[in-house]
Design a protein that fits this description.
The chain is mostly beta strands. It has five helices and 25 strands.
Length: 440
């Protein structure tokens, strides 16, 4: 550790590391010229939402020696994918995840592997521990190097519906144990409806320096907050709060300074310093100038209940909504189950509300951030009844028996379905402009 830097690269195992572009290609080779962009693949996962067409390339680990004038060196080689590795505290091992079974691409199961950094490449990964699913493959070594933390579940039946729990793996024995099953909430950032984030950030568990616990992001009813998890008694101490989402956090080497990336329905996100007193001090105002020019629609939170399960939802009223006026409604349902709608900034909804639409969105059965999936499924009917009540009986107030939290509706409206785009937007009460569907 410190003498080499690992990185991820897409590699065709039969060809190894290659420079980008075709060096020395014969300009008269018509076959190469006209087939350069043809994708040939024999693998099952031949396309990625982020990387596009993969062909026969796999995600592999390479290293660059920092103290030597040497090029990158590939240290893994097989027809399998690996995830970004993490150094052990002593710099001897790289921990990564994947599935090196012959049918690994057809299964959700993932394994933790150790790669000996001192061995000559290609290195045969050492199998350490497996889970039926690791929703987040981020690994965290304990300060003494004896334990690795990872999030996932080990239910072979429930699959994608499983709640990511915190597991601790003994490096010496390869044995793992779940230490957060009593929490009943997903760990990591699973807010999935934000449309302005290119990079969510580092949301994996982080060990406390004394090894007594870890810092975790916990999902709950459309919010994600930083917590301290104590191993001795399994308790959680919430460190951030409010109707917002922490998408990532980072600490200095001494673990004395903690910075979080946090946003809400009116701000895509900024950096905040977590003071020792527990207070948050804002460090950035990245979109301040733009947001000060735009009139936004504040999301109004509501909740609905079925079989004792509460599900969160939000209503974004039209910008400049006028009392007694009807507005068309856009209803968002579904999504998941591997995530949740949350109190995050959604540019798409701001565009709709600026054009005079009401936007209603709600978490539904099987989503992250509520109780375990077996109970979430039973909650589906009550959730849909609530959504239909808000949408179809848009006379206010909504019947109190339907919502478990009263809504301070900003406008009295009658029911209407989405039939046509409104001819004009309501008058803007101030000088701020609105989001436009076309560039300004």
């Amino acid at each position: 550790m410190g003498s080499a830097s690992p990185f991820m690269t897409m590699v065709d195992p039969g060809r190894g590391l290659e420079r980008q572009g075709a060096d020395g290609e014969d300009p008269n080779d018509l076959y190469a010229r006209y087939n350069r962009d043809v994708v040939v693949t024999s693998r099952l996962r031949w396309k990625s939402d982020s990387a596009g067409f993969l062909g026969n390339r796999y995600q592999h680990i390479a290293v660059v020696a920092l103290a030597e004038d040497a090029g990158p060196q590939l240290i893994t080689s097989s027809t399998h994918d690996f995830t970004p590795p993490v150094w052990s505290p002593d710099g001897r091992w790289l921990a990564t995840t994947g599935n090196l079974d012959p049918d690994g691409e057809t299964r959700r199961k993932s394994y933790v592997y150790l790669i000996d950094a001192a061995a000559a490449p290609p290195v045969a990964p050492r199998l350490l521990f497996g889970l039926e699913e690791m929703r987040s493959s981020d690994l965290a070594w304990s300060p003494d190097g004896a334990t690795i933390a990872v999030c996932g579940h080990n239910d072979p039946v429930i699959g994608h519906y499983g709640t990511p729990n915190l597991w601790l793996i003994e490096v010496a024995s390869g044995k793992g144990r779940c230490v957060s099953e009593h929490i009943d909430r997903a760990i990591g950032d699973y807010s999935r409806n934000a449309d302005t984030r290119r990079y969510g950030g580092d949301d994996e568990p982080r060990w406390l320096l004394d090894g007594s616990g870890l810092l975790l992001l916990i999902n709950d009813a459309g919010t994600v907050h930083l917590h301290r998890f104590t191993l001795a008694d399994g308790s959680l101490t919430q460190l951030t709060n409010g109707d917002r989402v922490v998408t990532a956090f980072s600490q200095d080497r001494a673990a004395r300074v903690t910075v979080v990336l946090m946003g809400n329905s009116l701000n895509p996100g900024d950096l905040y310093l977590l003071e020792e007193s527990g207070a948050l001090r804002r460090l950035t105002d990245v979109n301040g100038a733009l947001l000060n020019e735009i009139e936004l629609s504040s999301a109004i939170r509501f909740s609905c209940e079925s079989d004792g399960v509460e599900i969160a939802g939000w209503v974004n009223p039209p910008v400049g909504a006028e009392p007694g006026k009807r507005y068309p409604v856009i209803l968002y349902t579904g999504g998941g189950p591997g995530g949740m709608r949350a109190s995050v900034f959604v540019h798409e909804w701001q565009v709709y509300t600026a054009q005079g639409y009401v936007v209603i969105n709600c978490n539904t059965r099987g989503i992250t951030g509520t109780v375990r999936p077996s109970r979430q499924r039973r909650a589906g009917a009550g959730v849909m009844r609530t959504m239909q009540t808000i949408w179809l009986s848009y006379a206010l107030p909504v019947r109190p028996s339907t919502l478990s939290t009263p809504i301070d509706w900003p406008w009295p409206a009658a029911a209407t379905a989405v039939t046509a785009r409104p001819g004009s937007s309501p008058a803007t009460p101030n000088s701020r402009r609105r989001w436009s569907i076309v560039p300004w």
